[in-house]
Write a structure and sequence with these properties.
Number of helices of chain B: 10
CATH superfamily of chain A: MetI-like
Shape of chain A: globular
Radius of gyration of chain B: 19 Å
CATH architecture of chain A: Orthogonal Bundle
Largest sheet of chain B: 6 strands, mixed
Strand order of the largest sheet of chain B: 6-7-8-3-9-10
Largest sheet of chain A: 2 strands, antiparallel
Strand content of chain A: under 5%
Oligomer: heterodimer
Helix content of chain B: 25-40%
Structural class of chain A: mainly alpha
Number of strands of chain B: 10
Distance between the termini of chain A: 31 Å
Structural class of chain B: alpha/beta
Distance between the termini of chain B: 34 Å
Amino acid sequence: MELATPQAQSPSGPVAPPPTPRGPAKGAVEGSATWRLSDRIGLAICWALGLLFCAIAAGIVAYLFIQGIKFLRPSMLVTPATSGFTEAQSGGFSDAFLGTLIVGAMGISIALPVGVGVAVWLVEYGRPAALARITESTIEAIAGIPSIVLALFGTVIFSSTALAFLSRTSEGVVFGRSFFAASAMLSLVALPLIVASTREGLNAIPQHVREASYGVGKTKIATTRRILLPTARPQVATGAVLGLGRIIGDTAIVLVLLGATQNLEPTGGPFPIDYLRGAGTTLTNFVYETSPTGNLNQPQKAYAAAFVLLLMVLGLNAAADVIHRRARKAGTWSH
Amino acid sequence: MESLTTPPPIRRLPLEGPEPATQVVAPPRDPGNGNGAASPAPGGFTAARRSIGAPQFSIRRMEIDDVHVSYAEREAVKGVSLPVRQGEVLALIGPSGCGKTTLLRSLNRLTELTRTATMRGRILLDDVDIRQIEPTALRRRVTMVFQQPNPFPMSVFDNIAYVLREQGSRRQRKRALEPKVHSALERAGLFEEVKDNLNHPALRLSGGQQQRLCIARALAAEPEVLLLDEPCSALDPQSTQVIEDLIVKLRDDVAVVIVTHNLQQAYRIADHVAFMYLGALVEYNSATSLFGSPREPRTQEYVSGAFG
């Protein structure tokens, strides 16, 4: 957290020897002491808000770390939840942990190809222009829709008989809740991030680089595959990582579309399909249910699970950061 | 979503003021110093020419016949006719917005990437109308080097190999492509400098090396015509000199068309020069005549720096 103050100005490059000082000493460095009072108050508020923000973030992380380390036992990650009245009796949250991995993997494997495809179409083709504009605003709209609304919409879609094969059916009623249903809707949460990030990457490539590829007889599709997408890979990866963070952090969709359970509940079908068609849970859902508001009310478990979730999200953000920094180190063109 | 189409060029009226990018008048030097190649020109074009005398031979490769190019309603090129010959360097000069880059881009149908662009007239490549040739095939025969060095973000080797790999064919082995990659780099005078780091990223090369890599890339397709769009404008004088020497060397194997803002450069390397103004071809002549004794008053004014 570095707030730029006027004192922080450092001359870049070689500097001519300072002329004989005129007026107040200390050369050319401007201090806020000469500012108007209102500006100085404004600067002070900026400082204070920055520090406050840091303090809040640090507080949350520190508190969860302390609580997490206190309550988290490694066995919790391999023990499924069982019904029990006390924290000691109720097992761990291995199913929730697995569920988070499953929705993350499934959600991103839907959102990534779709998102990259949409972004490539928008940036490289984008015709007819009206359709491109509509697509753009649709993506923005999806980004703005609260996930609980997406979840509600998901129940309508996945309870239809046409999609009965994606979840459990009992007595002719389609349950409509499964990993398929939840992942499909969760992919929409990640989609806008991936589209935006990929577009940013593609737009950063100067036009003359594309033309250089066409200029040696390459088609648009070959140029996109061999030049543009590899160049935009860091941004695509950043988008995917941030999107993944959003997916595993989402609660509402899981709550509505994955079933009210703390275990994986496979339904009929061959091995992986039976689990994916069945109901399940994720860490966010587990934290919600075990928090004092939830049905289970076992706050120690909630802290332990929240700690695991936090570590995952922090890890993803760090990964996005590393990708970003590495991409900046590689050379680029002048526009 | 206009990013794939070329934005319509921003054009300034050339008479609005002098163009800072255009180098107009060289400091007058002793006229006898010009290597004896040219009669001293009024604009002070006494620098040594790199291509001395008439070319040894010349083969007509392209024929530009009454070409008009318009962007939407605006006509950027108005009825230009020119021959493009192998064995000589043809330079297109003129103030900004005179249509020289548009003309260059229409030679391999790159103008078609601009949706609003339309072309009338005929351009023949070895007596075949280029509109009869599939664009990707045409662009392998008429390749282009751009103003900004733009190697692809991959290794030096892969930059050339990318061009050699034919569309849709199976990816060839690296070993099989090696001789061709080496020869392309050699023709661009880059091989000695990069032979030990062919696997290094091309974007780590210096600007001049990057531009020569782009020339190597353009040569790798074994084109008949090489188009250069102000290839030295982003480079330092030393790299510029290396590339100018290279261009003169290349003219025996490939017809070279260069757009340049730099009159000195046109004088140094071109055998024939076409001066364009407001979309029209004003004068086409050998470099010595065009700079030494221009026929048209417009040309006279331009080469002597009266406007830019």
